[in-house]
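Example 3.2
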Amino acid sequence: MERTKTRRAKRIFTSRMQARLLLVFCVIIIVFTLIIARLIYINMTDGERYKKKVLSRQSYVNAVTPFRRGEIKDRNGTSLARSELKYKLILDPNMLLLQKDKGKDYIEPTMNALKEYFEYDNDSFRSVLQEKADSQYVVLLKELEYNLVEEFKEFSIENKNIKGIWFEEEYVRSYPYSNVAPDLIGFVTSDNVGFWGIEEYYNNELNGINGREYGYYNSNLNIERIVKPAQNGNTIISTIDINIQNIVQKHIKEFNDEYGSKNIGIAIMNPNTGEIIAMASNEEYDLNNPRDLSEFYSEQEINQMSIDDKMEKLNIIWGNNVISDGFEPGSTFKPFTVSAALEENIINNNSTFYCSGSEHVGGVKIRCNKAHGDLSLEGVIMFSCNSALMQIAEKEGKSMFYDYQKRFMFGEKTGIDLPGESTGILVAKDQLNATELATSSFGQSMNVTMIQMMAAYSSIVNGGNYYKPHIVKEIVNDKGAIVKAINKTIIKKTVSENTSDLMKQYLLSAVEGGTAKGAKVDGYMIGGKTGTAQKLPRDAKTYILSFIGGAPALNPEMVIYVVIDEAQNVDRKDDSSLATKLASRVMKDALPALGIYPEGDIEYVLPEMPEVNEEEIIEEEIIEEEIIEDEINEDDESYDNIDFIP
């Protein structure tokens, strides 16, 4: 049986099949012979070209081509921040050492050329070759200028022995006006991450998308590149006017040189659009060197600081006080209390008030510094009468008073396009008892920011429109086309035009014949309100002096807010005229620069009011809270006496 199976198997592989297999084998041999012959032919006739083609695909680097971060400009096109094109010098140690092993020494001429053009030390060059022998990418120098790089390139073309060197573009952020508007502009780290200001808030708009660069050596060991271009970032057109910003910072410096202060905040905005024109405080740090503490602390103090201490100090310097620091506004809050009552028809232009020099509220005596007697509503604002304000707040009641605080957007962010904004603090509605309601009516007990006050005040004097404050007006691409226009945005209606018109008249009177006389500017109608708030703890006798106002008074095109925190080296630290006079000096320079000019003789339409001498003006604006705890009723836990001197 086994022999039969074997015989059948042998019969399967016939002679015909053997012939076919031989044929296939012969065909394969012929094909391979032809391929080999073709390769020999190519190598003999065109081998050098193919060799160069292969060599030219030997990659030396896969590098990032950086985008150019967009500029930041002021409203008139002046550059405030820009990225300047610089170059990095790259060395390929691996290639130089391999060529030396092959008998081609490019090290000496390359090293000498770097020494001649860039003053790069020979010992440092040798150290790089030794320590990074396997590397094909070592950054030797950064931030090289274009002209110097071009000179070196021309020299290296003439000198064929310079090898293993190439340049990569990089962009370095710079600030042409290094100390101007640092709170508003901010700065960036080396990896294009914005910190503070516009740089941080609009970081994604300013940044672009990196490209990619691939490099190859050709047969002559010269570098050829394939580049995927980067997409540059957008440019930010801000609402800042660099001229007005300079004026503001100049006057802050002059005040501090003359008197000194813990801090000063000054901001100017357009009340009809919400555009911030200028904003500044004491801390003018160098945007080109933002981590330098030497302007603020001695060398000994800096040396004693830990890293955490330094960062804490720097964050205070970098912060924007105008939008982040809360404080009790004092009498500058009175226009809001009066506006709410006018809007709800609780009072009107014919309302009168009697000030005996104090008010008894919730078992507590709260005093004015003087008995004003009979006052019109206009006189209440002119002479900053606390008694009248408490009477008005009592008529409003805590619900209405609180609701109008919220209507004016106190206790919440304005939404300004800057990082670090605070909300401020309001006394909760259910905690607005009689005493808190009374003190809140003239700007004590609550906590606000400067930007909140400016935006709310602007709505009172512009016809009742609350505009969202903003620092940027346009975003454009690197071709100049507008990507986004940021127009004025009405958040809400706060008061009617009738209320607004009355308040503008009252605020004009406060400057012309009341407590804010120091804010006058020759040739202009100025309206505004002063404030003097005593800080906590009250017994420290420290004050915040302020003035908020605008011009022209009856149709404001600009609003200014000046806040002086703890004036130093002055006769009276509660003298609000320091703030009004500082505001006057700023406006005198800023108004013409903004294109707001005086128009001949001004005909004032003001009621006849009693004249107030300078001493009375100062006394009227002192808000001094003395809590006397002679007798405390344990049942109502109220103080026996509270003295407020307006």
